[in-house]
Amino acid sequence: MRFVDEFRDPELGRALAAEIRQTVDPGTHLKLMEVCGGHTHSIYRYGVDDLLPENVELVHGPGCPVCVIPMGRVDDAIAMAHEPGVIFTCFGDMMRVPGSNGTLMEAKAAGADVRMVYSPLDALRIAKSEPGREVVFFAIGFETTAPSTALTLKRAKAEGVENFSCFCNHVTIVPPLRALLDSPDLRLDGFIGPGHVSTVVGARPLEFIPADYGKPVVVSGFEPVDILQSVLMILTQLRDGRCEVENQYSRVVPYEGNLRALEVMAEVFALRPHFEWRGLGFISQSGLRLSDAYADMDAERRFSVPGVRIADPKACQCGEVLKGVIRPWECKVFGTACTPERPIGTCMVSSEGACAAYYNYGRFSREREVV
Amino acid sequence: MSSLDASAAIALACATDHANHCITCSDEGTPMVVLQLDEARGLALCEDLAGEHHTVEVALVDAEPGHTLLVHAGTALLNLNGDRA
């Protein structure tokens, strides 16, 4: 299969692993963060970290949008889902994310009309087929997903679909990266940059990392050979004393991004002054709301929601996992009280979450405890 | 078997498509081939690697039947038959 097979070639992977060993200074211990959940998933799925020398550690970043949704926003979603006449639509993973009093799946079991969709367009289709009901789409995701929501809202407006609204939880990638780089409890030596987010925003927004923080960034594809090559490119920069944004995924990522996507996002969304991230707290200008032109389609204006900030469960260490301070299996409840079947924290819900990725690929086993 | 060989074996055994990936993840993109265009509505009928058909928004790319698009959450973000294919 073009674009895939050549990037899963084990011989190429072994050759890159050998080159990585030759390139890295054995006297150093390097921490490289893979920003997005897609990379985390691939690393565990293919055992990429087993091919790396012991002194090159991959740290899992905050790029799984399910994992960074705070419990209070899930509670707001559940409150909307329970409104009379509402059909609440969301991506599948969001149905299992625990709020302070259950999940959307449990709300559905209790009688709320919660439906899983694969795209915002599916949600709009439901709205058009059920004109007597209010249809809310739970929009989450980084800049890769935001254009899809934006186009659907434009379409709904153009077609005059008045019973469709959006609970907007879109976030942007740069502010949390800056927050991580400013965090005193984390020392990182380089970044494996997000591949498809960069398809939309381009690689240019990542230039602040080398410019302001002196760390190399390599925008990477998702196959194992992509990730190994990106690690090698970062190590080569460090060895040569260089520090810049490089694009390993140039077969997909245009350095300038997709200008049409950026235009439609600018029309439909506006920056929130701040937004809460699970484990990272409130980050300035990191979340999107609907712009004034689309305010009438904002579900937060159409429905009354609790809007309460809920602290994470004490046992859950998702915040430390998301910041890369601890690795998934170092969490107190990993694989025991918290499993993909009964997640406590968001990192165990999404298959892109570091904990679920690690758990699902059998990289760790432990006797389960009943709590 | 060394851990290196074991990892290579895993890599070989996992040569599947992206079906295991989370639709919600912002960095998930799936290649799909355009079967038919509905230019008036800005939509395309596309086929994914597993042969399933999907309706895809194509407002952000220039697409023609037969082109391979990178699709995320029902929207084509890139035409892989463009300059960088």
From TrEMBL, chain A:
Cross-referenced InterPro entries: Hyd_form_HypD (IPR002780), HypD_1 (IPR042243), HypD_2_sf (IPR042244)
Entry-linked Pfam families: HypD (PF01924)
Keyword Nuclease belongs to the record: no
Keywords for this protein: Iron, Metal-binding
Keyword Iron (UniProt): yes
Family: Belongs to the HypD family.
The protein's name: Hydrogenase formation protein HypD
Automatic annotation (TrEMBL), chain B:
Top-level division of the source organism's lineage: Bacteria
Source lineage: Bacteria, Bacillati, Actinomycetota, Thermoleophilia, Solirubrobacterales
InterPro entries: Hydrogenase_HupF/HypC
Family per similarity comment: Belongs to the HupF/HypC family.
One Pfam family this sequence matches: HupF_HypC
Protein name: HypC/HybG/HupF family hydrogenase formation chaperone
